Amino acid sequence: MKNTKNTIIATLFLAILVMAVGYSTFATQLTLNGTAEIVGEWNIKITNIQVQSVNGDVSYETPEFTDTNATFNVTLKKPGDSIVFVITIRNEGTINATLGTVIFKEDSEEDLPAIQYKTSELQNSLDAGEETSFTVTVTYDPKTTEVPAIKTKTITGIIEYVQK
Fold first, then answer.
1. pLDDT tens digits for 55-93?
2. Where are the alpha helices (DSSP H) in the chain?
3. Distance between CA atoms of 93 and 115, rounded to whole angstroms?
4. Would 125 be classed as within a structural domain?
5. What 3-state DSSP class applies to 107?
6. Which residue range is the domain that position 153 belongs to?
7. Does residue 21 sit within a domain?
């Protein structure tokens, strides 16, 4: 019986040894390497600002713009005078965009109804390579009967496009 026990123990030990050698012979280590690259480009910008029309006795400086800012200065001399600017925005990137937030705020210490700003709607989506335009109209209210005490009114616009 002692010999049988020893034989069984030796056989089990030999089986474990054969399994360990077999495992190490057939085990393989796998190495995984990967690289990710972003190739899309976000580039939405103002590409032009020009005068579309002038009504009345209006003087103005040549509009200026950079990729993200447009500036115009206008002098309106009498009620009914107006000027219309066309601002062009282009998606020169490779990522399609959707119109997000649009805020036009008239900055003034006091309300100055004699000067009125009006903007047209903007295109809701701007795919890569597309451009859109909108207008800003500045008008000296034709119903004004007195020269206002405050004679300057500024508009600030924020147009935000987001990834589609």
1. 999 999 999 999 999 998 999 999 999 999 999 999 999
2. 2-26
3. 37
4. yes
5. strand
6. 44-163
7. no
